[in-house]
Amino acid sequence: MQIRVLGASEAAGWDAYVAAHPEATFFHRSGWRRILEETLGHRSHYLYAEIDGRIAGILPLGHIRSRLFGNSLISSPFCVYGGIIADNAAVSAALDDAACRLAHSLGVDYLELRNQKPGQKLRPSKDLYVTFRKPLSDDVEANFRAIPRKQRAMIRRSGEAGLVGIIDDEPDRLYRVYAESVRNLGTPVFPRELFYALKSEFGPDCEVLTVERRGHVLSSVMSFYFRDQVLPYYGGGTRAARLCHANDFLYWELMRRCCERGIRIFDFGRSKRGTGSYQYKCHWGIQPEPLAYEFELVKATHIPDINPLNPKYRLFIAAWKHLPLPLSMAIGPFLARNLG
């Protein structure tokens, strides 16, 4: 077994391995390496194990160095899933050891593995995050009936408000409502070029659905498709969206369209326990599943706590919510690209 670093010539083999592995996710695809390096400006270390000339396991890693948020090695930064996928436990252990050696050689504060399931080693872990995954029936009406009654009522009201769902070729309209939405939450927005890069890199597997009424955009979401799964990832809505339940319409419209095209897993994505997004997803009748985010502490003495629930960020978040939208869109990307 040899542990190697992914180069351009091995990208096709890497992606073939991802496509075939049952535990792989959209975030294991090699295209994220180019997004990380060329769009967000961070170094990558995409490790893979090779046995007799074939890939037997992979571990995508990104190195995030920030004066504000520390020095970390993450699998995978800016993604909700990551971690090792491998043929067997021995390959997984070899990749894990290689990642630890790399973390020490880079002098990072910590190595973070964003696993969906616990790894082989007993490590400090964070139970803050959960994910919401829901199987879809091939019958649209059956999917609607599976949603709790109160949420169905919200969807019906949105349908009576004259809303229309449209697939956008470009992420312009998405970016505007997404920027407003995260500003209202007190969170810096990602750079506009990230959304164009994602569309360019992943093509039809990266789709933007926008909801409008009488020509006015209310909400929008960028979704990632992987095998028989969909993951609505970057989404938001204007303040006006609440009045006509446009977000409820948005996610039901996405679910309905996915059912008709044969998608079988609706992955509502990651949320932090105790947040508004956590409660909102529970209203759709989807049970939260804990995510096994694990840490190898190198220079750090405790697990990092870089999230909006940390009290030390309270004043910053409160101030950010009151920034004029153009100003938040101008300075937000310089912060967001370092969050990981």
Structure in words:
The protein is α+β, with helices and mostly antiparallel strands and 340 residues long. The longest helix is centred in the first third of the chain and has 18 residues, at 89-106. The chain is built from eleven helices and 15 strands. Strands 1, 2, 3, 4, 5, 6, 7 and 15 form an eight-stranded mixed sheet that branches. The mean pLDDT is 92.
| Poorly predicted sequence stretches spanning 5 or more consecutive residues | none
Radius of gyration: 20 Å
Strand tally: 15
Largest sheet: 8 strands, mixed
Q: Any key phrases for this structure?
A:
single chain, 340 residues, alpha+beta, eight-stranded mixed beta sheet, seven-stranded mixed beta sheet, globular
Brief characterization of the structure:
The chain is α+β, with helices and mostly antiparallel strands and 340 residues long.
SSE blueprint and pairings:
Elements: E1 2-5, H1 11-20, H2 31-39, E2 43-51, E3 54-66, E4 70-75, E5 85-86, H3 89-106, E6 110-115, E7 125-126, E8 129-135, H4 140-145, H5 149-159, E9 164-168, H6 172-184, H7 192-202, E10 206-213, E11 216-226, E12 229-237, H8 246-260, E13 265-272, H9 276-282, E14 288-290, E15 292-297, H10 314-320, H11 325-336
Parallel strand pairs: 4-6, 12-13
Antiparallel strand pairs: 1-2, 2-3, 3-4, 3-5, 6-15, 7-15, 8-13, 8-14, 9-10, 10-11, 11-12
Helix pairs in contact: 2-7, 5-8
